[in-house]
Specification:
By secondary structure, the protein is of the alpha/beta class. The protein has 14 helices and 24 strands. Strands 1, 2, 3, 4, 5, 6 and 19 form a seven-stranded mixed sheet that branches. Helix 1 links the parallel strand 1 and strand 2. The longest helix is centred in the first third of the chain and has 25 residues. The structure holds flavin-adenine dinucleotide (FAD). The site of flavin-adenine dinucleotide (FAD) has 35 residues, from helix 1, helix 2, helix 3 and helix 9. Flavin-adenine dinucleotide binds next to helix 1, helix 2, helix 3 and helix 9.
């Protein structure tokens, strides 16, 4: 038989593609080599947030005295936390499997290889069977970057060096954890293990943590975690890993971080190895599959969405890219826009941002104004954040008076940021935003406060 659509990869991009396409009446085959839910559900977004929630509760209990709550003998039971994380993952993965079943998606748990094209369609081989699809959607995701640093390969083999995959399942909390890379994943794991009792050292090559996050907000986040006991070594280049140590270079000198475990979190790369892209001529660029704003590759009928196209490597981007691709497959007009993709760091305090930062807006030569406010302008923030140092920054295009970026640090930011996204996406002008009613008291009121600072 010929499937209307073959989806390769069962992560957020792949399972959503299968769900949406089958929901619209297409005959869909989904091929996944490892686990339905992909990195996001099994070893990324969801498990990390389950761990971080336990850490947040522990933090709350430890510092409860500020709010009149005292608790004795507070303990973070790491084994229990990991077991609960597994339960959360299983619940969500089961939910996805049920949806796929309900939508009558055929699921094959094998490694897929594209093996050519005939008059009938694209050939995909999995588990010794050749499947044929009129259209293909590639959603094979990404894997951690492993740099050619001496000792890293051996460390990974011995279990001294971990990626996000292994660290989420560590049986014991390491006494000393060295995190290579102060980006989002590194910081979230540093945050959990710091609370769980590890002495954490972050080694970062840049002069700031948190990647492209607004510089001032990154600095506030770093100060918060320095206070909690994390050591940050910025502008430091890791030169080697040996049992019990990470070596790094700073101002020409080699230093050592003694540690029991190392988390390698210097980034992720699109995964296309062994996929057989060459058999049908799909174009790639430094490993990622090139796509247009409809998710289409250079080969008509072949789409690639999610981490594998390398645009943004976030689950919510994968979802939207997939919806765009499926809409186009179904003949509906839709295009992908990347100007309002939220980014969140689920530390405590949380960080969230969307749209232009001051740095990117300046680089693009935009004429903009910035309002910066303390989160203390929100009554709820004051009530719930004793000694909080959160801020919000709102960027407005001077000419059109519309929001082009919002960046904040403070809890609930992750839940608020989509509102800013709607303002950016719909190009709302500040006069229109001023007419919106925000719930009171809420932390999101800082956006309203900020908007009223503009004329
Ligand atoms: C620790 C961590 C935390 C994260 N936290 C967040 C977060 O909070 N928010 C957020 O938005 N993003 C987060 N991410 C990123 C997010 O996980 C990814 O953006 C998302 O999983 C991408 O989805 P995807 O479907 O493109 O790829 P993936 O989830 O990587 O899924 C790809 C799937 O394809 C399968 N596959 C690959 N090759 C083949 C083949 N040849 N045949 C069959 N199957 C194949 C793989 O087994 C995998 O299941 C996090 C990532 C990590 C590592």
């Amino acid at each position: 038989m010929v499937y209307d659509l073959i989806v390769i990869g069962g992560g957020p991009a792949g399972y959503l593609a299968a769900e949406r396409a089958s929901g619209a009446g297409l005959n869909v085959l989904l091929i996944e080599k490892k686990f339905i839910g992909g990195v996001c559900l099994n070893e990324g977004c969801i498990p990390s947030k389950a761990l971080l929630y336990s850490a947040k509760l522990y933090d709350g209990a430890s510092h409860g005295a500020k709010y009149g709550i005292t608790v004795d003998n507070i303990k973070l039971d790491h084994k229990f936390v990991v077991a609960r994380k597994n339960k959360v993952v299983n619940t969500l993965v089961s939910g996805i499997k049920m949806k796929l079943k309900k939508n009558k998606v055929t699921v094959v748990m094998e490694t897929a290889t594209i093996t050519g094209k005939t008059a009938e369609g694209f050939n995909v081989t999995a588990g010794g069977t050749v499947y044929i699809g009129s259209k293909l959607l590639i959603a094979t995701g990404s894997v951690p970057v492993t740099p050619p640093i001496p000792g890293v390969k051996e460390g990974l083999a011995s279990g001294f060096v971990l990626t996000n995959r292994e660290i989420l399942d560590l049986a014991e909390v390491p006494q000393n954890l060295c995190v290579i890379g102060g980006g989002v994943i590194g910081l979230e794991m540093a945050s959990y293990f710091n609370t769980a009792g590890s002495k954490v050292t972050v080694v970062e090559m840049m002069d700031k943590i948190a990647g492209p996050t607004d510089r001032e907000i990154s600095e506030i986040l770093m100060k918060n975690y320095e206070k909690k006991g994390i050591t940050f070594n910025l502008q430091c280049k890791v030169t080697g890993v040996e049992a019990g140590n990470v070596m790094y270079e700073f101002e020409g000198k080699i230093n050592k971080v003694p540690c029991d475990k190392v988390l390698l979190s210097i980034g992720r790369r699109a995964f296309t190895e062994g996929l057989g892209l060459e058999s049908i001529g799909v174009e790639t660029e430094r490993g990622r599959i090139k796509t247009d704003d409809k998710g289409c590759t250079n080969i008509s009928g072949v789409y690639a969405t999610g981490d594998v196209n390398g645009y943004s490597m976030l689950a919510h981007t994968a979802y939207r890219e997939t919806e765009v691709a499926i809409n186009n497959i179904l003949g509906k007009k839709d295009i992908m826009r990347y100007n309002a993709i939220p980014s969140v760091i689920y530390t405590n305090p949380e960080v969230a941002g969307i749209g232009e930062t001051e740095e990117t807006a300046k680089k693009k030569g935009m004429d903009f104004e910035v309002v910066k406010l303390s989160m203390m302008f929100s009554g709820r923030y004051v009530a719930e954040n004793e000694g909080g140092d959160g801020i919000i920054k709102i960027l407005i295009n001077k000419k059109y008076k519309n929001v082009i970026g919002v960046h904040m640090i403070g809890n609930y930011s992750s839940e608020i940021i989509y509102g800013a996204g709607m303002m950016i996406e719909t190009e709302m002008r500040i006069d229109d935003i001023k007419q919106l009613v925000f719930p009171h008291p809420s932390v999101c009121e800082v956006i309203r406060e900020g908007i009223f600072e503009f004329d």
